[in-house]
Design a protein that fits this description.
This protein is an all-alpha fold. It has helices spanning 3-21, 28-35, 39-46, 49-60, 69-73, 77-94, 96-107, 115-134, 143-162, 173-185. Helices cover 73% and strands 0% of the residues.
Length: 186
């Protein structure tokens, strides 16, 4: 197997195991068995389990899949927020395995491993705050607090639909987010 294929096999195996069991409960031996490689190969490719974990995030990270920011800036506030909400929701759904890893890591206190999620959240927060400050159609006195509330609502809807599922029947994301944005902008 080529070096590239070996690395990809290790990363894929690690992603599956970390998302299922959490960082602390996975051994490099388990990862090597699932990837079909020798355990030493993991250390040759990634140096340590921690570096492997970081690389899983680098390879499969929540790359902000937001439409062109310049195009977004031309939208009215409701369209902008709807577009951001839908994009975020799709990113969260696509990265469900990584979110599960992150949630398990919180339980096992791997604080420095939170950086990939924190970086993503701050990038998105900055895009929204910048839009709110520049847009003349909207007057929000504290764009940072508004943005945190908005992002928390999107995250909460995602968590309710895909992780904890407390509501029966399941809530409809589109209906909820549209109502929220309408209420926020009034």
């Amino acid at each position: 197997m080529s070096k590239e294929k070996t690395s990809k096999a290790i990363l894929t195996a690690a992603l599956k195991l970390f998302s299922k069991k959490g960082y602390s409960n996975v051994t490099t031996k388990e990862i090597s068995e699932k990837a079909g490689v020798n355990e030493v190969t993991i250390f040759r490719h990634f140096k340590s389990k921690e570096k492997l974990f970081e690389e899983v995030f680098e390879q499969f990270i929540f790359k902000p899949n937001i439409p062109d920011v310049n195009a977004l800036n031309n939208k009215n506030p409701k369209e902008f927020l709807l577009c951001m909400a839908h994009s975020l929701y799709e990113i969260f759904k696509y990265n469900l395995s990584l979110i599960k890893i992150e949630l398990k890591n919180e339980e096992t206190s791997i604080d420095k491993m939170r950086l990939p999620l924190d970086k993503f959240a701050n990038e998105i927060k900055d895009i929204i705050i910048d839009y709110l400050k520049k847009n003349k159609e909207i007057n929000i006195s504290q764009p940072d607090i508004f943005t945190i509330n908005f992002l928390s609502a999107v995250w909460g809807l995602f968590m309710n639909n895909h992780i904890i599922r407390p509501f029966k029947p399941a809530i409809d994301f589109n209906t909820c987010i549209e109502k929220l944005i309408t209420d926020l902008l009034e």
